[in-house]
Write a structure and sequence with these properties.
Helix content is 36%, strand content 17%. The chain has one domain: 3-Layer(aba) Sandwich (NADH Oxidase). The protein has 173 residues and is of the alpha+beta class. Bound molecules: flavin mononucleotide. Flavin mononucleotide binds next to strand 3. This is Nitroreductase domain-containing protein. Pfam families: Nitroreductase (PF00881). Keywords: Oxidoreductase.
């Protein structure tokens, strides 16, 4: 598990080899195990492996540097969130998107599939392209595909931080 966490890297160069539906479904099945606020499972997923849809999605996603063969759009069911008593823009809904994103990326990696997060995209346009159901908001795209050589690399090479850079100990009581 720790080895998987440490070896996962964003993949921005992908081959055009299709992803078997069963693999995509396995990744989606893993996503439902992500922890959620109040165990309410308000994340929703819109998946596509259709080349035309992915091409259109790429056109409205400046942050999508790869050409994925599949995408999982992580959405939030805002209408249901409100029914459950959450504020429509509750912080925990964004946290749920993050737990789902990490789970999808790690599940893909565990299956030997490359994954790349994208948040730089037009939510309105992506909603139309993906036909996102009413009441859901698309928040985070995970591009999926088989890793290829070359292509866009790591952002800001050599900036890998240590845990000590990121952590302070809370004072003793
Ligand atoms: C919230 C969030 C948004 C991101 N948006 C993009 C994006 O739009 N395009 C992109 O290529 N990478 C995006 N990334 C990936 C980061 O750039 C990447 O995780 C970081 O450079 C570290 O690379 P690594 O995960 O391979 O260690 C995003 C990551 C996160 C967590």
């Amino acid at each position: 598990m720790l080895a998987a966490i440490r070896s996962r890297r964003v993949v921005r160069a992908m081959t055009d080899e299709p992803l078997p539906r069963a693999t995509l479904e396995e990744i989606l099945d893993a996503a439902r195990w992500a922890p959620t606020a109040g165990n309410r499972h308000l994340q929703r997923f819109v998946a596509s492996d259709d080349p035309g849809t992915l091409r259109a999605l790429r056109m409205v996603s400046p942050g999508m540097l790869q050409r994925p063969v599949a995408v999982v759009a992580i959405c939030v069911d805002r209408d249901l969130a409100v029914d459950y008593g959450f504020a429509r823009d509750a912080h925990s809904l964004s946290v749920d998107v993050g737990t789902a994103a990490a789970t999808v990326l790690l599940a893909a990696h565990a299956l030997g599939v490359g994954g790349g997060p994208v948040t730089s995209f037009s939510r309105a346009a992506a909603g139309v392209v993906l036909d996102v159901p009413a009441g859901w908001t698309p928040e985070f795209l995970v591009c999926l595909g088989h890793p290829a050589q070359g292509g866009p690399g790591e952002m800001r090479r050599g900036t890998r931080v240590t845990w000590q850079d990121l952590t302070v100990w809370a004072p003793r009581a």
